[in-house]
Amino acid sequence: MRQHTKPSKIRMKHDDLPAVIARKLAPSGSARAGSLLRALREACITMLSAIATLLITMLIAPGIGAGVLAVVLCISLSRSHLDRDRRGRIEAAIALPLVGLVAVGIGSLLQHSRWLGAVVFVAGMFVSIWLRRFGPMAGRAGSLIALPFVVLLTTPYIPAAPGGAIPALIAPIVVALLALLWVSSLHALAERIGFLPTRPVRENAPPAPRGESLLRPIASTRMAIQMAVALTVSFIVGYVWFADHWAWIVLTAFIVSSGNRGRLDVVYKSVLRVLGAAAGTFLALALSNNFGSHDTTTVVLILVAVFLGLWLRPLGYAWWALFVTLALALLQGFVGASTASILGLRMEEILIGAVIGVAASWFVLPVRSSAVLRRRIADALACLSDALDPANPLRAPELFIAALDAVEQLAPAFRASRLLTKHFRRLQPADWVDALLACRDPAIALIEKKATPVGARRAVGAARKSLREPTEILPALRDLYGSLTACAALDADPASTQPTQD
């Protein structure tokens, strides 16, 4: 007597898979509400940290510049998650004071020796991205190097106000350490009481070395060159034609080019940046007309805008662009600039910066978004293969989930492209993303039960091989979803396996 299964109970027709996957990925109200709730909690802790740091900063180093630096450092540290483990806190304790000093120093350099400051800025950003080629540790160092330049773009250079309790030279160091103290303490407290989930510390293996040539450098080098070109052009255009308002061009070119995931991603972000910035600018104009230039009211509005941007960012980058632009536009009132008087000029600069960023990514050693997507799908399938390997004693879903999250980061741009090109383009990489993301639940169910079904492992292998030919990727991923679903159903329902006699 042998055990046979009745596949009719668990298998589905191949033609039904697209509809099943579409239903599975359709955003439910509960899922969206859960995502917004998590983002709301994170935004609350970040803003509490920023407000606490800001209040103490105003007592010991009064002045707009120090206050803005305090808020920006809290936001940057919260998003970096360096405060979540001992090693990260040590790195942050060393790096953040340097970040504050470098931001103030380069800001002063850009104020008094513009072209030299621009050269230092471009070189620093190039190195921070180029270091990613040497693995996760170097990439983390690159992120720390980039932080003062990011702070500088979002923090206007405002000289320290006289009369502070501490010397102006060490004020950035004290502000940085205060930011680290409050962010670390409040995040630790939130995790301890269950307000925020505990983030497991993962050590990622270094990427496998890939071939590089002078004519076709690896992706990180190409992205570093693209960023350098975009920033160089934006500085030149800003300095020559826009005098004192050059920062908006550079900021937009930087935002559009940062985190470059290929040409399509850059175009998508540039559109969202322009739309969000336009809405934010007009909203700032309306608020300034209604509330005037009262300092206390403006500070409250800026903090509310930052909070809303942090909270609503999971819904789309346009929300973040809208509220950050609103906050920066309101901040102009502290440095004597009228929102109404520079409205048209600001929109013109944002458009120019977006065009520069897109042009650099499109024509300077371009990175194809589909190639980035295939690489991330390959990484996710490799993690899934390891998690289903019976020879692997440490089978866990965390690495697979992280790899899926990396794939999901690319989804919005590809889905927008599919919406615009579905009538005349048959091959849609967005379908690859949907098919792979649909595998999340059945794959995790198998991994958590330590199951290693042969059929699922074969389907993973077939999906990995299909990445060599784009036309074969979607059928292979759909087959993988069907196999994982069938195996998970068998494992969950023992009654589906019934004894029969030969």
From TrEMBL:
GO CC annotations on file: plasma membrane
Highest taxon of source: Bacteria
Domain Integral membrane bound transporter: 234-359
Presence of keyword Endoplasmic reticulum: no
Keywords: Cell membrane, Membrane, Transmembrane, Transmembrane helix
Keyword Oxidoreductase: no
Residues annotated as transmembrane: 45-78, 90-109, 115-131, 138-158, 164-183, 223-241, 271-288, 294-312, 319-344, 350-367
Major localization class: membrane
Location in the cell: Cell membrane
Membrane topology: Multi-pass membrane protein
Family of this protein: Belongs to the YccS/YhfK family.
Protein name listed in UniProt: FUSC family protein
